[in-house]
């Protein structure tokens, strides 16, 4: 569809490149004024909420299911991510093993492999227009220290996810597929893919509506209250009485009024992306990016990059944005965008002349122990999910399937996965302690990257983080 909005208008209304590229979008009307009654109300229309809604209606068509989103569908992380349908759980496999042990880390890897397959099968079987490509993913090392750690990670990943799931590429193997002088070694994981996040989330909306879910957009929930065994949810001019409630608000969860517990489960962490002008055939030749695989580096503050369907390179990550207030308004960060361009130039010197076409930001939900969580508030009639960090494309959709199981009282292998009802570490109370908590984690990650990349001698202008 034709999009007449200019890039500067789209950026000033905090749209992602994918949302802008999507073209004209007609949101559903807001929730009409008055009192409404439903069996299940879902708050948040990203991957988590939309998948839960559709799966519920498919399993129990007799239930009335309503979904409210504060914005247009796809405004949240689901419409603005890198689009990696990937198996990484939480922060890093080493961190998961350290915190939870090998047995749980193995279960987590298997859950994530199922999650990737769930998304791929859904797209195939429903013929979703999500621009999906199952082209695999690389994890790359730039420095000798990173390579040493990468080789250890390779062994660990094989232990957790199966030998056949990963291959180790030496520098010369890697050079055959990507002509970047900076890549020293890579892990290749074939069983992953990339998609257009905004097209995909709006396809999920279409599926949910086909299943008879009632979706209202631009309908922010202002308060939640327990009343005579049901949940009373208020918007600006309407009230919804719901037997069961799903809080699928991801990085916004701490802003929801009505539950102290939910307010201390997570905080937003902001991540930023840039996308280049389209590359010419000669430029693709010079960078030699074969197979359209997606790429992450194995830094702590990871960069992620991929090719778009329209022939551009998009890159995100590196530095992060932190704001523990409830403003949710750090959509732009010119300094981080500049650092991303510097990293792009450093990684692909042959493309230094390429201009940035568009830049944007978005919030991921991060908790204190860097581990995703699905939990109940009080009784089992309110379910919430968050803490997916930057690895939620597959996870949150599969979590939606699990939440539907939980609401229907189904005992399945996936609903017994250990992140369900786990005891997560609460975010410290008050803005100062929360700020100190999140900043200490950020400082520790930056220090590891600085230590491992000292030999690269990168200056600030070349994408150095410190
Ligand atoms: C820039 C970026 C890059 C990323 N890249 C990747 C990647 O490549 N691979 C990967 O696996 N993960 C990635 N992620 C993470 C992934 O996008 C998320 O984990 C996932 O999309 C979260 O889905 P969700 O449905 O839980 O939340 P969201 O999509 O954030 O949806 C939450 C919704 O709740 C709504 N909401 C909030 N408050 C209210 C309220 N009061 N009332 C009503 N509605 C409300 C919001 O409007 C929003 O639409 C990235 C995230 C970002 C931001």
Determine the CATH superfamily of the largest domain. FAD/NAD(P)-binding domain
**What is the share of helical residues?**
25-40%
Global mean pLDDT = 94
Distance between the termini: 43 Å
| Attached small molecules | flavin-adenine dinucleotide
Strand content: 15-25%
Number of domains: 2
CATH topology call of the largest domain: FAD/NAD(P)-binding domain
Overall spatial form: globular
Instruction: Let me know the largest β-sheet.
Output: 9 strands, mixed
Total number of β-strand segments?
Answer: 19
Q: What is the name of the CATH class of the largest domain?
A: Alpha Beta
So how many helices? 12
State the low-pLDDT regions, or none.
Answer: 460-466
CATH architecture of the largest domain: 3-Layer(bba) Sandwich
Alpha-beta content class: alpha+beta
Radius of gyration: 21 Å
Please outline the helices and strands.
Blueprint: H1 7-12, H2 17-22, E1 34-43, H3 47-59, E2 65-68, E3 84-85, H4 93-126, E4 137-141, H5 144-161, E5 167-169, H6 171-177, E6 185-189, E7 193-194, H7 197-210, E8 214-216, E9 223-227, E10 230-234, E11 238-247, H8 260-263, E12 267-276, H9 281-287, E13 294-297, E14 303-307, E15 313-317, E16 321-322, H10 334-347, E17 356-366, E18 373-376, E19 382-386, H11 393-407, H12 431-452
Parallel strand pairs: 1-2, 1-11, 2-8, 4-13, 11-19
Antiparallel strand pairs: 3-7, 4-6, 5-6, 9-10, 10-11, 12-15, 12-16, 12-17, 13-14, 14-15, 18-19
Helix pairs in contact: 3-7, 3-11, 4-5, 4-11
Bound molecules: flavin-adenine dinucleotide.
Description:
The chain is an alpha+beta fold. The protein is built from twelve helices and 19 strands. It is globular. α3 runs parallel beside α11 (393-407), α4 packs across α5 and α4 (93-126) crosses α11 (393-407). The strands form three sheets. Strands 4, 5, 6, 12, 13, 14, 15, 16 and 17 form a nine-stranded mixed sheet that branches. Strands 1, 2, 8, 9, 10, 11, 18 and 19 form an eight-stranded mixed sheet that branches. The protein folds into two domains: 7-81 and 198-266 and 370-427, FAD/NAD(P)-binding domain (3-Layer(bba) Sandwich), CATH 3.50.50; 137-190 and 268-366 and 437-462, D-Amino Acid Oxidase, Chain A, domain 2 (2-Layer Sandwich). It has helices at residues 7-12, 17-22, 47-59, 93-126, 144-161, 171-177, 197-210, 260-263, 281-287, 334-347, 393-407, 431-452, and strands at 34-43, 65-68, 84-85, 137-141, 167-169, 185-189, 193-194, 214-216, 223-227, 230-234, 238-247, 267-276, 294-297, 303-307, 313-317, 321-322, 356-366, 373-376, 382-386. The structure holds flavin-adenine dinucleotide (FAD). Flavin-adenine dinucleotide is lined by residues 43-49, 68-71, 75-78, 80-84, 86, 220-221, 248-252, 256, 271, 273, 304, 316, 362-364, 388, 390-393, 396.
